[in-house]
Amino acid sequence: MGLFVFSFSEVAKMLKNVPAGDLVRKDELKSLFGGKGYNLAKIFSAKLPVPPGFIVSVKAFEDYHKSKNLSNELMDEIKKYIRELEIDTNRVFNVRNDLYDDEKERRIPLLVSVRSGSKISMPGMLDTILNLGMNDNSANRMYEITNNKKFVMGVYLRFIQMFADVVKKVPKSEFDNCKINSDDFLQEAKKYKDIYKKFVSEDFPDDPYLQIKLAIGAVFASWNSSKAVFYRKMNSISSSLGTAVNIQMMVFGNYGQNSGTGVVFSRNPIHGDKELFGEYLPNAQGEDVVAGHSTPHMISYLNDSCRKIYEELEKYSEILEAEFKDMQDIEFTIENGKLYILQTRSGKRSSQAAIKICVDLIKENKISVREAISRIELSQIEMSIYSSFSPQEVSELTPIANGLSASPGVASGVVVFNTSDAKKEFSAGKNVILVRKETSPEDIEGIQFSSGILTSCGGVTSHAAVIARGMGKCCIVGCSDIEVEEDHFNFKTPDGIRKVKSGDSISLDCCTGNIYLSELKTYFAEPSEEFKTFMSYVDSFSTVKVYANADNKKDLKKSLDFGASGVGLCRTEHMFFGEERIEVMREMILAKGNKKSEAIKKLLSFQKQDFLEMFLEAKGMPVTIRFLDPPLHEFLPKTKEAKLSVMNNLEMKPEEFDVLIESFSEFNPMMGHRGSRLLISYPEIIKMQTEAVITAALEAKERCKDIDIVPEIMIPFINHEKEIEFIVGIIRECADSIILNSEINLDYKIGTMIELPRAALVADKLATYVDFFSFGTNDLTQTTYGISRDDFSKVLKDYRKNNIYKFDPFCRIDEDGVGALIKMAIRIGKKGNKNLKIGVCGEHGGEHHSIRFFESIGVDYVSCSPYRVLSARFSSALARIERKN
């Protein structure tokens, strides 16, 4: 066993000696051998037909990146393992210098594949070379054995092109434009070698050992290619992981009609159904299916054409899924009627499939609920309820084309044909549909900026399909109805006349495969039963409850549909901005005497009705109502017409009106006359809002006698214990009087928002007056940092560029600063009131990393926008699991 190189059998022995529960050691081995090599060793251990080979470990990668070269010591090890591979396979790697050759038994040339293998799968991002070891001598020997010039030429030319592309960056198009004029494989190979020499200014290497040295170095170097760096950044994969290299004996799916290559999933990666799903391409080699150059047959073709091989594939798929306890993405090759498993990995799947597969695996007792939750990514929760088009709108349209549904959902947007245009249109705020003949790994950034992908070639296991599913992008592939002219920035529709140009709008229905020549509106679909089941598992692990920010019955209903446990923030000011109400609000602010009293009565009526609807919809769940927070000038008229309307209603003179309006202006409204300060100046607002809350709750309780309704009143922007003492006194006096006169028992709670550093510092004093704290992390962040969140975007770019901030503290909680204040306020607050309920209702309440922090410091609930409720519920459960682990 070498220092840098290990055979599949050696790694299999290591794995066998690791106890089943030793996850740390297994992770160490996966880090050393990469995910692909680790899995190949397990396939070998399961005695499945895997082509033999060896792994150049991540240690060799690290050594290479220090010296920028493959050491002589490493090359000696590789030669040793090549010799062992020759013995195992009875083939010869270097025909030219074959020391073992027997003229009576002309052995088959040993060709190998050179593939990357990072710990975390990065499909298509790192380089691969097939058929390595090929030269003129090997080509002649292969022809002597096979008597098949077409086969030998295909193997030889593919190798030269792949080697030139990966090792020396010779454009593939140069070889694509080279015409094949004969069946003389040596003559045609010379044409390819001449192209190589033209670009590289040196001869194509014929020595297989030099080939393998250059190939391994190129695969190592591809770790830092722009596409690989972008993919790692997009998926938060550490750049320090590195990659191993897997050297495997080549088997040939292009040997003839009794051969082929394919990709199969042990379950459907689009919908999650338990069935073989995949594609097969007869008489083809390795990368042909995933590259998307051709549109292969569905896997059922193999069932029809060779039932025995199909049944073997079914059996091996079941074995591999049982071994890895997850849906597997399996590459296979059939060489002259013999099936080989080339590699397996956990398959990329749509969000919907990911949820269904986890639920099914739990039911099959293959994984635990804890493990299932840990496997799901946050983005998959967010994308799980994918959108759909209106059936009525679609029924009135005729599709312009139809392709293969590769990743579910719908998308509408402007057509682009390359990454730069995708980025440009996305930056302009548009939804983008990337259209290509076939995608390649170089398109990864364009796919990231796109809402949907459309290709005219390729199948459902092609690069476009796999990447789209993994990124949650809807995708249609193999749409042979259209003719894509990338250089001319258009595609032709099936009639051959109409052209869809760059900038035109189309819509993709990736459930039916239909394409429409218009931009359709999208709607959220109903969650599946599997999704509801999965979220019930999630809730069983959650310790932090998830409430919603909802200002009306509609938002509350949507929040409850998404599983919210109540309302953590009802912003009453949002209830005043309707066309009818804003006029009344302005009169309440500006009028005096009877007019002011009449306006307050009208607002009371509006508010009571709003609160009543919310209490009835919540059915006893907590509803936290924040009293008026913004400064009054935000409600005042801005336009000439609006000012004239209010002035006439109040029967005021223009000069008097202008002076009155000006009196409400503020130099710094964010730090000005708002929240508790406003309520103290206008106690009539406190009384009006208290009456609205309490009378609405009493009526709701009378209507629904079996539901316990306990309204929660929240006071904003508190800074001093005397402020809260004053406001709470008015609320209690008003509320208790109404309840006493109603003869209905009603409990209510009063809380305050902690949005200012001083409030956090005197939390123990504030806590003696209230039942709960809710941290308004938006204001707490900007007052702690001393900068408005609206202005922060101006400096964030420079701060990130200079590595001052790693993230935006207005999006993710700053644990060391703002987080420390929250942690301290909770600790001392509970000294003032041991039964204090703790919540968070700023933007951070729906952010994954922030929720993990809140869970660790004893927050009882977070409140977020309706559409973040699902992801927040998931984050809460995952936070508990991660902390326990």
TrEMBL record:
Residues holding substrate: R571, R626, E755, G776, T777, N778, D779
Record-linked InterPro entries: ATP_grasp_subdomain_1, PEP-util_enz_mobile_dom, PEP_util_AS, PEP_util_C, PEP_util_CS, Phosphohistidine_dom_sf, PPDK_AMP/ATP-bd, Pyruvate_phosphate_dikinase
Residue ranges occupied by any PEP-utilising enzyme C-terminal domain in the UniProt entry: 528-874
Highest taxon above the source species: Bacteria
Catalyzed reactions: pyruvate + phosphate + ATP = phosphoenolpyruvate + AMP + diphosphate + H(+)
Domain Pyruvate phosphate dikinase AMP/ATP-binding: 31-300, 311-357
Membrane-crossing segments per the record: none
Protein's name according to its UniProt entry: Pyruvate, phosphate dikinase
Biological source species: Candidatus Improbicoccus pseudotrichonymphae
